[in-house]
Design brief:
This protein is an alpha/beta fold. It is built from 20 helices and 28 strands. 48% of the residues are buried.
Length: 641
């Protein structure tokens, strides 16, 4: 029996009337309505899953092999426990489980139910933020960070529903439903870190770093060497570190001060550890009590933020002179430390086996590696080879801001890139378009105005104009359109304050207010959203896909204008020419000539302009653009009319 059928039968078998009303966002029901609708959840979910199961299977996107279907991916970023959270009984508060036994934080059952909604907007790939089981020791917020993984082989039990608690069955149903709808599934893993109370500690304490139990954590902004945090460096040593790292040297990198190294102990044996509450405590042969320290930002080395309370770095190598966490043991690996003789082979094998486990049990199509560029090269290659031995077309995406051919050579099909930081800065976009018109970056990159660590697109200057410009960039550029859930709802509340936030913004959003750590819901029923705009943008991307997904610089022609505030470029091949025009000021009206690379043609408006414009002898279009306005035209030669 398929996973979907099993879930449907369990829902039907448990069907009952509820004591109170159960409300569902209208968008989940008909993909159009804003208002919530009242349904019996047993009926709604069983009927929705049955409709998916009864539908004709849709084809998955394909490519040249080796995960290159990625080039045609149009991706929706789903964080299940947040994306599908909703106040179903309209009590005014988000209950983990309401009185009728239904979860109001997000679940995998609800994530299956919204797949048709996601599909209706034109997405063919779903990227999931981590959904693995989460640690409790030092937990941030009310639900904990999804990156504090208790066990990468198990799923977060809080993603089940009380009526169907089996999260592995639900995830199997999720993957089955996504594939039936023609959508690929990409999971995310953070392989460098684990929860401080990881399941692995009990049998493998040597996979972790340990320090004296009586060592207090350092407070943010202080430099007390008696407290634990990232190593404290002198200015002279910092200069040497940067010089050696930037020149590519990995031999005899400066170690942390002796006082810092002295905090660490050798790992206790399995028979020497026990839990006190949720914390692992070890007792060494000499009676010294030890604990697992929190991780910290390992680069740049002068970072002095407080240690993370919930996660620690895995100890990938063992060497008596390198028994500490620092830049030269966590990322810029010293060659004396990081060699095959020092590998902790059982840990490496456990990490290498994670992705094949999800391939075997759920049929996932790809993985985003959080900080994959900081993994040892041999470990990264082992992870990739094991996955592609099972599925040669398995895709790997990297959380790397650099869009380089080097990442392709490492085995990645796509990288996050830097457009999250650039789409709202027009001068950066002009430079980027000029660069990709000269040479191909060699790898697919995300085209998106936000991710789970950045400010929301709807908080930028002239938010509506900017969000529509971002959608048109997703249409136009030969990267991967990537939408974080909530973008289409005009969501302004950040998921996390990791990148690009002021100190004031960080203070405004402590962990108990951030969905990355705590219970919170999107405003699914707000009046006015961008679902229709997203749907139309992705329709354009599909319709002109052969041209728009082609990264060949010959298909990208920077245009020009007599107005420096107007950005112009075209995408062109033998069959067609598409012109894109952007007002690079968010508030001021701009007008001018958009000069294009096109033959004697008429320009048919496809975005931001209705109608037809005749190109003049200078092959230009006169444009009038309000603040943040953008346009797309298809240039059709007169001889074809």
């Amino acid at each position: 029996m398929s996973a979907l059928q099993s879930i449907i039968e369990q829902l039907r078998g448990q069907r009952r009337d509820l004591g109170s009303s159960y409300w569902i966002p209208g968008l989940w029901v008909d993909f159009e309505s804003s208002a919530a609708q009242q349904h019996n959840p047993y009926d709604f979910y069983s009927e929705r899953l049955h409709a998916i199961l009864a539908s004709d299977p849709q084809p998955l996107i394909t490519g040249a092999g080796g995960g290159e279907w990625t080039r045609h991916a149009i991706t929706y970023n789903l964080f299940p426990r947040f994306t599908t959270a909703f106040d179903h009984n309209q009590s005014g508060q988000l209950e983990w489980v309401n009185n009728d036994g239904w979860r109001e934080t997000g679940s995998l059952l609800k994530s299956i139910a919204i797949l048709p909604y996601i599909h209706s907007m034109g997405f063919n790939t779903v990227h999931l933020l981590p959904i693995n089981s989460i640690g409790i020791d030092g937990r941030k917020g009310t639900l904990g960070s999804p990156y504090a993984t208790r066990n990468p082989y198990t799923l977060d039990e809080n993603l089940g529903e009380p009526t169907i608690p089996d999260v592995h069955l639900l995830f199997a149903g999720f993957c089955e439903a996504a594939h039936r709808l023609g959508m690929r599934v990409v999971m995310e893993f953070a392989f460098r870190v684990a929860a401080k109370d990881s399941d692995w500690v009990a049998e493998h304490p040597d996979w972790f770093y340990w320090i004296r139990e009586d060592t207090p954590d350092r407070k943010t902004g202080t430099r007390d060497t008696r407290t634990f945090g990232s190593p404290l460096w002198s200015g002279e040593t910092l200069g040497e570190i940067y010089w050696k790292v930037e020149s590519g040297q990995r031999q005899h990198l400066p170690p942390p001060p002796p006082s810092y190294q002295a905090m660490y102990t050798h790992p206790p044996r399995p028979d020497q550890i026990h839990k006190e509450g949720h914390q692992w405590i070890g007792t060494l042969d000499n009676g010294l009590r030890v604990k697992i320290p929190g991780a910290f930002t390992d680069w740049p080395p002068e970072d002095v933020q407080q240690p993370w309370t919930d996660a620690t770095y895995l100890r990938l190598y063992q060497h008596p002179e390198f028994n500490y966490m620092a830049y030269n043991t966590l990322r810029m690996y010293d060659e004396r430390f990081a060699n095959p003789a020092n590998q902790i082979h059982d840990l490496w094998n456990a990490l290498i086996g994670v992705i094949p486990h999800y391939q075997d049990h759920f049929g996932i199509d790809g993985v985003m590696l959080d900080m994959g560029h900081a993994l040892p090269h041999d470990l990264l290659q082992g992870i990739m080879q094991a996955a592609r031995a099972k599925n040669p077309d398995f895709a790997f995406w990297g959380e790397d801001f650099a869009i380089t051919e080097q990442n392709r050579q490492l085995g990645y099909n796509a990288v996050m890139g830097h457009l999250f930081f650039d789409l709202h800065q027009p001068e950066h976009m002009q430079g980027f378009i000029d660069s990709i018109a000269r040479w191909s970056p060699g790898i697919t990159y995300f085209v998106a105005p936000e991710n789970h660590n950045t400010p929301r697109a709807a908080t930028r200057m002239n938010a509506l104009g900017f969000c529509h410009q971002a959608l048109l960039y997703m249409v136009a550029l030969p990267g991967m359109p990537f939408v974080s859930s909530g973008f289409e709802l005009y969501e302004t509340h950040p998921i996390n304050t990791g990148l690009g936030f002021s100190a004031e913004a960080v203070a405004k959003y402590p962990t108990h207010k951030l969905p990355l750590f705590s219970d919170r819901a999107l405003d699914w029923t707000r009046q006015g959203n961008m679902v229709g705009a997203v749907r139309y943008a992705m329709h354009l991307r599909h319709h002109y896909g052969d041209l728009l997904t082609n990264p060949d610089p010959q298909t990208i022609k920077p245009g020009s204008s007599n107005n420096p505030n107007v950005l112009v470029f075209t995408r062109t091949n033998r069959e067609r020419t598409l012109a894109f025009v952007f007002n690079m000021t968010m508030y001021d009206h701009q007008s001018g000539e958009a000069e294009l690379y096109a033959s004697d043609s008429v320009a048919v408006g496809k975005w931001g302009f209705e109608g037809v414009a005749r190109l003049s002898e200078r092959l230009s279009i006169h444009v009038e653009l309000g603040g943040g306005h953008s346009m797309m035209f298809e240039a059709t030669p007169l001889r074809q009319l």
